[in-house]
Amino acid sequence: MDEAMIGSLIASTLRVSTPLILCALAGLLSERAGVIDIGLEGKMLFAAFAAGAAGVAFGSTALALLMAMATTVVLSWLHGLACVSYRGDQVVSGVAVNIIAVGMTAVLGIAWFAQGGQTPPVTTEVRLQAVFPGASAWFADIPFVGPLIGYGLLSHNIMVYVTLALVPAVWWLLYRTRFGLRLRAVGENAHMVDAAGVSVTRMRYAALTLNGMLCGLAGSYLVLAQSAAFVPNMTAGRGFMALAAMIFGKWHPVGAFWACLLFGFLDAVAIRLQGVHLPGIGEVPVQAVQALPYLLTVILLAGFIGRTVAPQALGRPYVKDR
Amino acid sequence: MNAGLPRWADLFLLPAVNLAVALMAAGVMVALVGQDPAEVIQVLIRGAFGSQRGLSYTLYYATTFIFTGLAVSVAFHAGLFNIGGEGQAILGGLGAGLVALWFSSFLPAWVMLPLMLLAGALFGMAWAAVPGYLQAYRGSHIVITTIMFNFLASSLLVYLLVNHMKVPGSMAVESAPFAESAKLPRMHEFLAGMGVQWSASPLNTSLFLALLAALCVYLLLWHTRAGYNLRATGSSASAAAYAGINPKHQVIMAMGVSGALAGMVGMNEIAGVTGRLMLEYVSGAGFTGIAVALMGRNHPVGIVVASILFGALFQGGAEVSFDVKGFSRDMVVMLQGFIVLFSGAMAYVLAPGMARLLAAMRSKPRGAVHG
Asked: Cβ separation of A111 and B326 shorter than 8 Å?
């Protein structure tokens, strides 16, 4: 394994992890406020479609991002309407969002673009470009660390760096602000927060709004950075993987970040291991590496690697006592 | 939480209104993309029920949905949400397929088919019992674990098919075909044996198995001690524990039964239709089972009716996509999502208004309100 390969491994780990991190942070904000979010996958898919459609229609990156975020915020509010305002089942509501997303994005895609549900590719101007386009060449001559820094770390578009900055930002919001304290309290003991004179409903909607915005970013990354067009069902389980990462990270932003990097790394490795014979193991089954994130999450949840403690009031609708 | 609705309204009126809202939402979408909802409905109903072939396809789809719908509902009655029907159905198909590949060349059909059913049910049961055990004894949340198990199941199937079961030299990712003894008779063959002419379709005799399963679930839940214990745990685990029922055992037992039911999907798809193991024989039926169970209010009769409705939507939807330009079966998937939303998550949004309306209607003619 030479340094060029390590550099490209770092680069693809970061690329694959970025939407996972955004989505995991989104799920974390909602779940720390006590609202289960199984619908991450569906929201991400909706956002990818909105970004693709708006990117093609308006030819503007900003509008594509805005439409994607607006769509997912509305979906988050719908989730809130069903299970915060009307105290419906949070898991059922999330499942509904996922199923509607698969159906509706394809229906609208076919109706608007007539390409079997795909959108036409967005133009290069709309897509996100590398922030430091010359970095790879610049660092290429430095032995060993050159490719790692130049290609591995500095070849990315703005959203990768924004995402990396969002991890400490969300941590700060949750653990160093009054808003964050209240948000976490709503997820642990809603009655206490209500008694302190803060509206539980309003806190949960606030958390869901932030959740929607982050889901919007995650989905639009798939279209604006990863591939150029929306393809039906293109999220392919990433939302569930982000959910797994959030749990693997024990509902903590930094933990979730490392879990996303681990899962992204496994994904990047799985592609490179295809058909490779390792000494002593033989050919590595790619499916096993790809299934590892889910297996690890099950083992962790079962309490075999440390303990995970979910927010106390997670999944419980709040009924105000009279 | 029935918001003061009378029993008949809670059982029939509210679900009907919720379903109507979901259909209306889908109708609005159909109109928005520039098609005529009335025409779509007409083609859909004709496609689903208008011919022997259409009706057969409707019932063929319904068979799978009865299995997955029952699976979801048994877990629901124990207070558990089993999203893992998809994975359990995959494992069930795998179990049925494996015994068929191993034994079908020398075992007669009357041994082979029950063996496949047993293997499918056991594999599905095992795949569901593990999340059940983890929920009961290790405190991991069943929803998350079953989602993870869905992904693990599909990875396992892909791995086994690609690396071990694929016919060498063939491009298609599928196993060798089973011998004749591992194939369930098709319905048209079965009816021909009884002297009735029926057009050929994938509909097979596993439909009877599905109906029998619905009957057994009904008897189990409402006419046995085991079913009573299961429902008691679902209503209140702590009350059940005081009554001497061990809720942990009930969780594992409910998940086991649930998984076994989902595992029987293989009888319809593998033994009944494909005659070999391949990818994608479940293709979302586990999730459709959630919509079916919610619409059928978790009662076997309701589930059979809801399954036929969903079978009609899938078959009719396919028919519409041939006839109406720009329509695709994704519309049916979307409607399925609306049904989960309006009949499931938002089921009681309309209840208070409806209760007020009913109360007003009742008090008017009699002129007096009591109680």
From this structure: yes
Partners of residue A77 in chain B, C-beta under 8 Å? none
The answer to whether A107 contacts B155, with C-beta atoms less than 8 Å apart, is: no
Note which residues in 213-242 of chain A have CB less than 8 A from chain B. 232, 237, 240
Give contacts of A 90-149 with B, CB under 8 A.
Answer: 90-93, 95-104, 106-108, 110-111, 114, 117
**A200-228 residue pLDDT tens:** 999 999 999 999 999 999 999 999 998 88
* Residue from the list B29, B290, B349 with its beta carbon closest to the beta carbon of A95: B290
Task: Tell me the whole-structure pTM to 2 decimals.
Answer: 0.90
> What letter represents residue B286's amino acid?
G
Q: Is B11 left (phi over 0), alpha (psi -120 to 50) or beta?
A: alpha
Residues of B in contact with A244 (CB under 8 A): 144, 148
Residue among B46, B47, B27, B45 nearest B36 (CA): B27
Q: Does A34 touch chain B (CB under 8 A)?
A: no
Cβ contacts (< 8 Å) between A38 and chain B: which residues? 83, 143, 147
Strand, coil or helix: what is A278?
A: strand
What kind and span of H or E run contains A268? helix A253-272
Q: Where in chain A are the domains?
A: 3-129+152-301
Q: Which residue has the higher pLDDT, A206 or B359?
A: A206
Q: Domains of chain B (ranges plus CATH)?
A: 38-350 (1.10.3470)
Residue B253 pLDDT: 95
Q: Is A38 on the interface with B (CB under 8 A)?
A: yes
A3-129+152-301: what fold?
A: ABC transporter involved in vitamin B12 uptake, BtuC (1.10.3470)
Q: So what's the ipTM on this one?
A: 0.90
Number of C-alpha atoms within 13 angstroms, CB side, residue A264? 23
CB contact under 8 A, A106 and B144: no
The number of C-beta contacts closer than 8 angstroms across A and B is 152
Contact: B163, A117; criterion CB under 8 Å: no
